[in-house]
Amino acid sequence: MVKSSIDPILSGERMALARLLTEVENDSPAARRTLDELFPHTGKAHLIGVTGAPGTGKSSLVNQIALHYRRADAANPNRVAIVAVDPTSPFTGGAVLGDRVRMRDLSGDPGVFIRSMASRGSLGGLAQATAGMVQVFDAAGFEIILIETVGAGQTEVDIARLAHTTLVVESPGLGDDIQAIKAGILEIADILVINKADLPGVDNAESALRGMLSLARPVENLIHHGQVMSVPETESQEDSQWEPPLLRTIATDGTGVEELLAAIDQHALHLRRTGGWKQRERARLEAELQTLLTETLVEEFRARIPIKHYTALVEKLVQRKLSPNEAVKLLLKGKA
Amino acid sequence: MVKSSIDPILSGERMALARLLTEVENDSPAARRTLDELFPHTGKAHLIGVTGAPGTGKSSLVNQIALHYRRADAANPNRVAIVAVDPTSPFTGGAVLGDRVRMRDLSGDPGVFIRSMASRGSLGGLAQATAGMVQVFDAAGFEIILIETVGAGQTEVDIARLAHTTLVVESPGLGDDIQAIKAGILEIADILVINKADLPGVDNAESALRGMLSLARPVENLIHHGQVMSVPETESQEDSQWEPPLLRTIATDGTGVEELLAAIDQHALHLRRTGGWKQRERARLEAELQTLLTETLVEEFRARIPIKHYTALVEKLVQRKLSPNEAVKLLLKGKA
Description:
The structure is a homodimer.
Chain A: H1 7-10, H2 14-26, H3 29-38, E1 46-52, H4 58-72, E2 80-85, H5 97-103, E3 112-116, H6 125-139, E4 144-150, H7 154-161, E5 165-170, H8 176-186, E6 191-194, H9 202-216, H10 219-223, H11 237-240, E7 246-248, H12 257-274, H13 276-304, H14 307-318, H15 324-332
Parallel strand pairs in A: 1-4, 1-5, 2-3, 2-4, 5-6, 6-7
């Protein structure tokens, strides 16, 4: 028998990491046990969510952020993990040649680990798998974990906003339809980035964004954005106030990325100073707890229902002899 | 006391409908009771899911489909409901002027009811609310129910594909990033629409789509696309085979929409002939059952946990004294 050990993970061995990440994605019992063992070693990484509409160049920007974090401190370079939960991201395989070429900057760098989640799982599956992967990278000592999601789906936005620092990426010249997505996700932004800032219309885009921002982000939103049951009220609103900066970048050549890193680091500092860091940790861990609780409750319940009863009940639904709500009540009473 | 009656709903009174839809969105106990009473009156409508990337003109197309269904049979016009679950849809309020103007075609028509879901609720909330609204419209005698979602989020795609007929809308001239979304949702298409067919590049877009289509849709995918536990195997694969047609439309002037309606009706006929209709009903109702079951299990469980225990447990998570998985186990054992 091989003794299951978390040492290879803690020391960041790539093969062990890759294997564990696959197990986490499949939510195997072994993965859950390993995550339990790894958990005490987590809580050190800076989680950065990056979200925005398709076409804004999020992935290229994530790539650049990773590169810049690698270079920021030559003596003691950060290790950077990327978790891509975006069907439009080149990291998840839906790539076009141009993006693949740009990604070469990162491949081959042993201080960078990219993991994508291309598959659509169950409702809670995506959030749960992402949380698990982030824990693995955190325990493995990656100082920076970038979580890239597409800012158009409910689940995906929820994943990005549970990071310590959430970047919302915009760009000029998108269609009007996409403009509407923007308004919806502005309120979760800690930092707003207008990427592709070399495109015409960037000034208009910026003033439109500033207008939307003042509407979308009343003061109370600044304090906290998780759906939590137990936010402590010890911090004053004044201390927690953070005015989301609006920055311009050109991810294809790296323009503005250094300033973006400075803003990200400043946000982290702000969170630590105001107690916001712990508050977000709490919100994120609570969301993870609830996702896992839901998944577990459903699994345990399913295991208890005889398949014959279940099938008979679905048939009654189809025949409109029972409503879904009535069927649930019968299931909970153990009758079908 | 006013006797709660479903008669105003069954006869399609707009004020009663609007009030009930709000209750359904809020998932009130009264709404659940009313849905129970309405459920035996459902099962007559043709549910049409419309999904696609932002910028493809889905909403304008939905608008045109509704208009054409209204006009299709002058003697006995269909009543049409639209449920918009798309943050980019003008129906949900994220509109630009051009779209609003086009929507005037529908407003004021008493045979059309538009309901939007702008809010981001809990994980299962969006799917559950959509299902409830569809039941209300079905019971109220709307023959056609259009469900519009953005084809970029996991939840949203799942909602669209649980209709009887799923339209995936594409358009030429979108960015490469958006191209990648397309590949991911092609496999759920019963009918493929290239909208904005007057734009340059439509021929290239069509041949690219045909290429992707042959890859994305192997024969076994045609039979069924729900995640169900109890698919009956009575229908032969041969009978169920449906080759998704690829149609071109220009929603702004209605070009191709008549042909699209013919294809939709043909798909409905095909489903009825092959038993696929009942199969999809079953898949959809089973998904609704599972969403509701999950929600109910979690609610009941939460009501049983003392808030003090829960808060103490979250604190242990933050301090890394417990992993989320271990916390769930303790919660299930009733300890904290």
